[in-house]
């Protein structure tokens, strides 16, 4: 069982909650530590900074391959590593505008915990 | 601090050693390294990244020391991903230079062939950020692929410009009897190879394999033969998550570790005669050469296209085959590099750089989140 490991990331994974600095208004994702950083939900909008197509996946992801991974430049400033979805590899372009969606990432095995998290798709 | 010499080396073949455990491989390399040594070994440091994940065994060092007949000796296991070998050499250099031990044996060992590809990829992904990278299915290979695409996009160059690096590695590896792959490849075949993590193709991806290497480090120079000294050693770190870096194509830990090693050795960048880098893909070597200042940003690929990385070029690279042809020893890589470069400085390498006197070895964890650089100098 790895419930706590995934549970504690729920706000970040389900709704892209990071943090914002109370005076500079800088945005951090994942959330930064410190009393001056307050919870802040990002818009989920961004652009593809770079991407690759994974054909040789690691355990837990092998059933999905090939799939597309990317570093997304979020509009609030932070960058994030995530999969692209609802798009084929030959349709992805550098700089493409994308938005966050919540998708099933897999499960923790026999105990049946389903893992949901953000992926990004082309802006509809 | 005392000068530190290399007085013994050992290495197994890089292969799928179905009949051998990690301990067997480590013992083989370790015995070679201590064969002609009559002094006292004060410590045994073992570099290994993946045994806990793939071999159900952590803390290999006491097992290796005991097998070598050194029961009771001080031991340390170093697991810093692909940088483990370099960090173990670094710790041994510090212990001997500081006078804590007169001789330290460093053994690097990796055993990856007991599991299938998915588990190996998962183990290699342990060197990246578990929650914010690996969870999303990113592999280290995919991260290098993303950097390659970013590089191609930023500098408007095609994938064919990367081919010279694996072509050179394979050409050099043909003569190395310990290499995993001993055949040449061509730039034409590079271009039509199947994708592993597009834009990275099969002929631009190293294969992890089993093997061990050992280096005996001593405060006393060897009697007779070449006198090789660890003249410079530098370690640096960077963010674990690649996306946390402002400039993805800048490997700052490579630059810092290189500069620290250079200063300690008291040499200039251009003094180095032969190089071995962490080069599982061409893009890794290209970005490292740029970070070290051997090429302006966006031009590192040309070190391949103009032939500078060949044995007769200005920055000869991967003379034993590099990660691509010798095979990628992950946590043992940094030790194998030192063994191979000692052969260069002794003039006995399978693919030799003429009259090499100063050598540079560099290995890293993940995308350069930890980097170790060593400079070896032949004094006589």
What would your notes on this structure say?
- The complex is a heterodimer of chains A (124) and B (380).
- Chain A is mainly beta and 124 residues long.
- Chain A contains two helices and eight strands; from the N terminus they run ααββββββββ.
- Helices cover 9% and strands 45% of the residues of chain A.
- Chain A has a five-stranded antiparallel beta sheet with strand order 6-5-4-7-8. In chain A, strands 2-1-3 form a three-stranded antiparallel beta sheet.
- The model of chain A has no long low-confidence stretch (mean pLDDT 94).
- With 380 residues, chain B is an alpha/beta fold.
- The model of chain B has no long low-confidence stretch (mean pLDDT 97).
- Chains A and B meet through strand 4, strand 5 and strand 6 of A and helix 5, helix 6 and strand 5 of B.
- Strand 4 of chain A pairs antiparallel with strand 5 of chain B, so a sheet runs across the interface.
CATH topology of the domain at 5-115 and 208-218 in chain B: Peroxisomal Thiolase, Chain A, domain 1
Pair with the biggest interface = A-B, 30 and 37 residues
Oligomer type: heterodimer
Residue ranges of chain A: pLDDT <50 for 5 or more in a row? none
What is the fold's blueprint, element by element?
The complex is a heterodimer of chains A (124) and B (380).
Chain A: H1 3-7, H2 10-15, E1 17-21, E2 27-28, E3 37-41, E4 45-54, E5 67-74, E6 79-84, E7 97-107, E8 114-122
Antiparallel strand pairs in A: 1-2, 1-3, 4-5, 4-7, 5-6, 7-8
Chain B: E1 5-11, H1 22-34, E2 43-47, H2 51-54, H3 61-67, E3 74-78, H4 84-97, E4 103-110, H5 117-124, H6 140-155, H7 164-173, H8 187-192, E5 195-198, E6 200-201, E7 211-218, E8 228-237, H9 252-265, E9 274-276, H10 282-291, H11 302-305, H12 322-325, H13 333-346, E10 358-365, E11 370-378
Parallel strand pairs in B: 2-3, 2-4, 9-10
Antiparallel strand pairs in B: 1-7, 1-8, 4-7, 5-6, 8-11, 10-11
Helix pairs in contact in B: 1-3, 4-13
